[in-house]
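User: Quick sanity check before I run a bigger batch. Here is a single chain. Can you write out its predicted 3D structure?
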Amino acid sequence: MTENKAFIKASGIIAIILLLIAGGLFSLCVYSDVNFIKTFLIVITGILVLLTLFIVVGIFILLNNNIKNIKAFKLFYSFSKNIILPVIKPFYRMFGIDSEYIERCFITLNNKFVQSQNNKFKNAEVVLLLPHCLQNSLCSVNITHDINNCKRCGKCDIKSMIEISERYGIKLIVVTGGTAARAQLSKIKPGAVIAVACERDLSSGIKDVDSIPVYGVLNMRPNGPCNNTRVDVAKIEEAIKKLVEKNNLSAGE
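Assistant: Done. Predicted structure follows.
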């Protein structure tokens, strides 16, 4: 929740500003004599109020771990992903908030949505999707075509990910980018995906794959982007336990 504090604080400020602007426009509507201007201002006011409402609801969802109204949440999530988030990004840039904050909060929102569906899958239906940058940059072994080529030397997190996939009986694939990921998922047709990537790639990937639930896990970048990245093994196991049926988990363990 710490990583969302700046986003939530700025969201509250933006919501207040939008509401004040909407109030000012509404006042102009009341005192304006030109019907066209009135109509235009009413429409703009309505949009601002709607944006404010969705920002407030978004803050509530990020703060609340217990989502009770699943249908309302699904509607909010879908509308936010396709319409609201692209529209409000410029407002956050005005406050100097990096787009990674917005993308990170969208990933959090997406993961809450995936969890709220309470869908459980068999081990074989879940795919662990990893970026090629997790592999040690000095390694000459090609693992994108066949993960079994990995020598499991332990110089990168690929070894740990293979061990997890074997322990829980889930499929593991490593891809070089978004196009390759979409092609692989289209071919495999999994029930659910646990995807590891940076904020930008994860958020865009989640938006691209509408028909499959994608649980996002952010990578770590101690050497900068796309270079010997890392992943928290505990977070991968946590994601698996949220998606895989309990009886299959005990069998995997």
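The beta strands are 126-131, 171-175, 192-197, 214-218.

User: Great, the batch can go ahead then.
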